[in-house]
Each structure stands twice: as C-alpha cells, then as structure tokens.
Design a protein that fits this description.
- By secondary structure, the protein is of the alpha+beta class.
- The chain has 19 helices and 14 strands.
- The strands form 3 sheets. It has a 7-stranded antiparallel sheet with strand order 4-3-2-1-7-6-5, covered by helices on one side.
- Helix 9 crosses helix 13, helix 10 packs parallel to helix 13 and helix 13 runs antiparallel to helix 14.
- The N and C termini lie far apart (about 65 Å).
Length: about 600
C-alpha cells in the first residue's frame, strides 16, 4: 500500500480535525502537514525524533461509530497509538497520542460470544472514544492493554513523559518568549509605587508562585511574610497588569484565611491599601471574588473565606458566580455526551442548555468584563481571587488583560499571557488534566484552561479583526496541553518544572508556533484597531465552539477547507500591503520632486 493511496482517517470527521492536532489523527494540518519539519505529520512519515515502536498487534478491528468495522493492525510507540487498516479498496488509518488517553478498559471475557464482544475501549480526554475488537484465541488484547497502560500512563510505571525524549530541532527558542522583568518594562511599571520582589527566588516563600513578582514598593519584607501566612498557600496579592497612563492595576491572590471567627490581619489590610494608593485616581479598591457568594461563605467553615468590608473599609467586594471545578467537570461531561458520536437534532437546543456549558462560559466572560470596565472606565484598581487563586482567578485576570491590552491579542503577546497568568502563577495543569496517570475519576480534574480558550474564541468571534492569531492556534494549544509532546504545560507550577529541568530537557510549544507563525495568523487582523475591547456579554452572543467540540463528528464537518482559505487571504493581504507601500513610495517621490521638473500629461 503506497503512502499516496492511504487515506488517513478513522472516520470522515477526522480529516478536518487532524489538521490542527499535534496529538490527534494527523492527516492534514494547519500547521503545515506537508512541512517535513512539522511535528504534526501525516501518518506514514517518519516518527518523531526519539519515538520508538514498542508493539504491533495484528488482526484487530476498529469499530468506527460512523463507518462500522475496519480491520487492521495497531502499533504502540512511546508517543502514540497508530491504527492502519488493511482494506486495499478503502484504506483507513489514524494515530492518537497516548497523552490524550484518559482511561483504558477491557470489554468482555473468555466466555464472551458474539461479534466484536471482546476488546478494548479507550476513553480520550478530548470527547472521543475508541473501541478495538480483538481475537480471543491469540491473547492480543492482553499485549495491547499492557503496552497502552505502560506508555499512556508513564508516571504509574516510573517513566518520563515523551516530551523528554522528543529531540526535534527548532529555530526559535520558545522558553525565552516570557521574561517577567521584560514584561514589567513593557508595561512601564512605575518603580515609585511598585518593586520587583525576589523573596521567592528559591520557591521557599510560596511553592506555587513564580520566582519573581511585583508588590507595592512601601511593603516591608516582614509584612509581606505576615500577609503570606494570612493567605491560602501563601499566595499574596501581586501585580498582574498595570495601565501605564492611569496606573490602575489588576492584582491577583488567594483567599484570606479568616475562618468562622472572622480573623483579621492588620498587615494584610495595609498591604491592600498600598495597592489602592499606588493608583492616585483610585479611592476604592474593588475585590472581585470569582466564586459564588455561597461558596465563599462555605470556605469560611474550612478556614478560608473572603474580605469583610468592615475590616477593609477602603474596598468593595463583588462576587462573580463562577462555579467550582466539580460543577465544570460535570458540565463538560454532559456536553461531550451530546456532541459525540450522535447528535439529537430534535432536542439539540434543550440538550445543550441542560449541559450548562455556555452559561459557565458567559459567567467567566462577565467577570472579566467587570474587571476591564473597572479599570478602563472607572480608573480603579482591582484585586481578583477565588479560593487558592490558580483556577478561576487565572481565567478572570487573563481574559480581562486580553480585553484591556492589545499586545496580548498578538500571537507573541498571547503566548506571554499564557506563560505569565497560567504557567508561572501555578495553574495545576498536571492535576487538572491528569498528565501521565490513570486516575481518570480523580476529583481534581477539571476543564478550567479549556474554558479560558473557549472564552477567547468567543471574543474572537465578537471582534474578528482584533486578534492577530486564529482559531487553529487555540486548538493546537489545547491539544498540546493534553499530548505531552512539549514541556510547556507539564507539572503544576514553576518549582516542579525547575526540579524536573523542563526548560533544559524539553521543547517549548512556542518554539513550534514561532517556527510556523504563518499557519496561525488571522488575515482579518487590524493592528491599528480598537485598543480596549469591552464585549457585551449575553447568552445571545455566546455560541458553542463547534470547531473544537464537534471536530470528531462527521455530521458536523464543514466541506469548506477553511485553513486553506485563510492562507489564501493572507497571501492576498500581503500582496495588497506591498502594492500600497509601492504607491506610497511613488507618491512620496513625486512630492519631493521640484515643481518645474514634474512632467504632466
């Protein structure tokens, strides 16, 4: 069977989905599937550098929910599961990175009878499920199951993630994209009011915070340590973003440990007042608690809680009604059930509403819009927190910064935003995604980061000319969170990545993105567009992100090759820009000619 004739799709839905998936079925890719330097390769090309074949199991049958039974063989490497069909008339094949697998179950036993009643069911972290029927007599299921367990869940077998074996060479070094001091300089940090603090340079002050952050200049170190003892996980209020003109700021932290006795901390109250006073136009500090009020009150019973306006008389606290990780996990589960493999057209709208997913996205966007409005229109400074300050807090701060600062709406700026607000400030990617572990029912798992990307997509739909990057970048990022090809999203915090030498021994996702920038650019982008985006948040404007959630359902696949159309538009845009520059140059040259030397026809 020639490579040219092999149709690399497990089902018709895959052809559209694979093109933006480092981890998925890999036929066509918006990141340049025909580029031999791309890690998003067509199936029959060479393996990734460092990828090794572990086991091939012949005579299995893939049960496709759209095309029925497809006979073939399964190969397991240390990175992917690869299926290749043997039907010469209509060959099919696909690969799934093992990091995408949530759980593996054996179906049937030795006494099972009936066609395809004995095999392996694979549940993926990104909507899909796969079923492979095996022959009972050759023990192929046991071999397949054991190898999948070993390499899909490396931490359970004392193995490392594939990212440590992936030795591809890139021109760009994505690890240098974000430097906190450079970012403070870009924001024109006012050093009369703020100082760069290195109290955590050895991660002994707060093990989930970055080594470098900014705090009010007048805050003494002794008070900072006292504040840390009063804040959950020592996550003190620190600067996320500053408006260089108004000096209004967005700060982030964790909840105060007030408990049922409503404990107070004089140093914490003074610290928050210093944040307010750093902005001369600010006479009230707004504290945006991302949680519902009832959840915040429940946390008081566990020793946490929220700021009392009696203690913080210069502040106003507002709750944002973003539900906890357990509610969000259940909402995504309901959404997955209605989009794959079948869609109930008759009850689609009711089923979608019952998932609550779009309502949750609206709540996240509404909280960010509230912060942006306080900063832009009220010139007030804002402090954001939830419970521990690494889930809902990151959603609200990063989205509000995306609304306020057009730099973060550029491709490189978006990379910086994610590195700063999510990676460096300790969003627990490993726990929320379940990297390398088979604890698929772990209550710590939740689609927090996916909701952030979904909310970004919603804004891109509302403001199609305001973002330099396109939808394919968002999908690539989310796929890379799962597949463990890059080190960017591995582990839970900066300290853990430092201990595991992630920067020294793995590649950054941004290295790949920067090497393939053209594939992720939005041809409609207007660099001179609106500085601040203040979207109108209503359920009428919130849509289901079909390009992500429905990409595996053949009934929803668009026939329009959008990624190719985007490339064509980019080429036309560059040509028109060049023609404009030529015309401007000729006009300038004519203006500079002496009056008597001009020739008029």
């Amino acid at each position: 069977m020639s490579d040219k004739n092999l149709r690399l799709t497990s089902d018709p839905a895959s052809a559209a989905a694979e093109r933006i998936s480092t981890m998925s079925i890999s036929t066509v890719s918006t990141t340049s599937s025909h580029n031999k330097d791309s890690p998003l390769r067509p199936l029959k090309e060479a393996r990734h550098p460092g990828e090794r074949e572990q086991k091939t199991v012949p005579e299995v049958t893939f049960i496709c929910p759209f095309m029925g039974q497809i006979r073939g063989s399964v190969t397991i490497t240390n990175f992917r599961l690869e299926f290749v069909g043997i039907d010469k008339d209509s060959p099919h094949g696909f690969s799934v990175p093992l990091g995408m697998i949530s759980s593996i179950e054996k179906v049937g036993g030795q006494s099972s009878k009936g066609e395809n009643s004995y095999g392996i069911q694979i549940y993926c972290k990104y909507v899909r499920t796969l079923f492979f029927a095996c022959k009972q007599e050759n023990h192929s299921r046991r071999e397949l199951f054991d190898k999948l367990q070993e390499f899909a869940f490396p931490l359970n077998h004392n193995n490392k993630f594939f990212a440590f074996d992936y030795k591809k060479e890139f021109r760009a070094n994505g690890w240098t994209i974000y430097d906190p001091k450079q970012e403070f300089n870009r924001m024109k940090l006012n050093h009369d009011s703020w100082k760069i603090c290195t109290i955590n340079e050895k991660y002994e002050f707060s093990d989930t915070y970055p080594a470098i952050f900014a705090v009010p200049r007048l805050a003494p170190e002794e008070d900072i340590r006292t504040v840390a003892a009063f804040r959950s996980r020592s996550r003190i209020p620190v600067l996320s973003w500053i408006n260089s003109e108004s000096q209004a700021t967005i700060c982030r932290c964790s909840q105060p440990l007030v408990g049922m006795t409503k404990k107070r901390c004089r140093e914490d109250e003074t610290f928050l007042k210093l944040i307010m006073e750093a902005n001369a136009q600010c006479h009230k500090l707004f504290i945006i608690d991302a949680r519902p009020n009832v959840n915040a009150m429940a946390n008081r019973a566990r020793g946490g809680g929220y700021e009392s306006e009696d203690a913080y008389q210069f502040a106003e606290i507002q709750f944002s009604d973003i539900q906890n990780i357990h509610v969000m996990r259940e909402s995504l589960r309901k959404l997955q059930e209605i989009v794959y493999p079948t869609i109930d057209d008759k009850h689609w709208l009711v089923n979608l509403d019952n998932t609550g997913w779009l309502q949750h996205i609206k709540s996240v966007l509404a909280a960010a819009r509230k912060v942006a409005d306080k900063i832009e229109n009220g010139k007030n400074s804002v402090l954001v927190h939830c419970s521990d300050g690494w889930d809902r807090t990151a959603q609200v701060t990063s989205l509000s910064m995306l609304m306020l600062d057009k730099y973060y709406r550029t491709l490189t700026g978006f990379e910086v935003l994610i590195e700063k607000e999510w990676v460096s400030f300790g969003h627990m990617f490993a726990k929320r995604i379940g990297h390398g572990e088979d604890k698929h029912s772990d209550s710590d798992r939740s689609p927090v980061f996916l909701q952030f990307l979904d909310a970004v997509w919603q804004m891109m739909e509302m403001f199609p000319t305001s973002f330099e990057f396109n939808e394919d970048l968002l999908i690539l990022i989310m796929d890379s969170v799962y597949n463990c090809l890059f080190g960017t999203f591995l582990y839970n915090c900066e300290l853990e990545r430092h201990k595991e030498r992630v920067k020294e021994e793995t590649h950054s996702l941004w290295s790949f993105v920067e090497d393939n920038r053209e594939d992720y650019l939005n041809p409609l982008y207007n660099a001179d567009g609106t500085r601040v985006l203040l979207p109108k948040i209503s359920m009428r404007s919130i849509k289901l992100w079909k390009g992500y959630y429905m990409r595996w359902n053949m009934r929803m696949i668009t026939q329009d090759p959008r990624h190719e159309r985007l490339k064509q538009l980019l080429a036309v845009k560059r040509q028109l820009e060049k023609e404009l520059q030529d015309l401007q140059l000729r006009a300038s040259q004519r203006q500079s000619q002496p009056q008597e030397s001009r020739v008029y026809v």
